[in-house]
Request: fold
Amino acid sequence: MRVISGKYKGRKILVESKGNYRPTLARVREDIFNLLLHNNNLDVNLNNVIFCDLFAGTGSIGIEALSRGAKKVIFNDIEKNHTDKIEVFIKNTNEENYEVLNIDPYKQEIDFLNSCQIIYIDPPYDHRFELIKNKILDKINSNILIILENDNLIELDNLILIKQYKNKNLFFFRT
Reply:
């Protein structure tokens, strides 16, 4: 897997061959950043954004945000081996505008999310939306752009389905 665009375009992202995560496909990453950068309704300038990759896994979404000029990226994953690989990638870039955390967002304080303007949420397969809503979304301040990747269609008043793939749904909404 490689970075799609920006200053790190083409660099290889470290991926475990037998990892317990599913890396976000290149076409999905491309769609996310095309929407962020070119959709006037979202009103996003990445240069002014603190971006959080909440269930980072490989870190591909957060790395793509850094590559495209995000002000700061917060990577979080409960698995230390995942965040160690993210650290290795970033240390080879000389970036300073990042933070890597090993926090369980369901059990630990997540106040750091309220400093973000964009939070990307692509939880593991077994995480139901109700759990995300009750343990994470309900604790976030208003006017934060949430990008949620989910296998199921979800109905919520302020939730807007932006893109649908064969087995993925991509939602963008503000809290």
